[in-house]
């Protein structure tokens, strides 16, 4: 979806609200500009839940990484 919105904005058909990582190169290249970024940021909250059962090693690693992100905030 973000690719479609990005292309619509680059075609001059409007504006798009996109994550910075999705348009970083286009901003660097001058193909897109950022409008007043400070006023356009919306804080969000995300919640992650897990069951008390054993998870795969990949899932456990993912969970530890999520916990690390939470601790960094």
UniProtKB/TrEMBL annotation:
Source organism superkingdom: Bacteria
Matches recorded under SUPFAM superfamilies: Periplasmic binding protein-like II (SSF53850)
InterPro entries: LysR_subst-bd
Pfam family, one: LysR_substrate
Chain ranges of the LysR substrate-binding domain: 3-67
Protein name in UniProt: Transcriptional activator
Biological source species: Salmonella enterica I
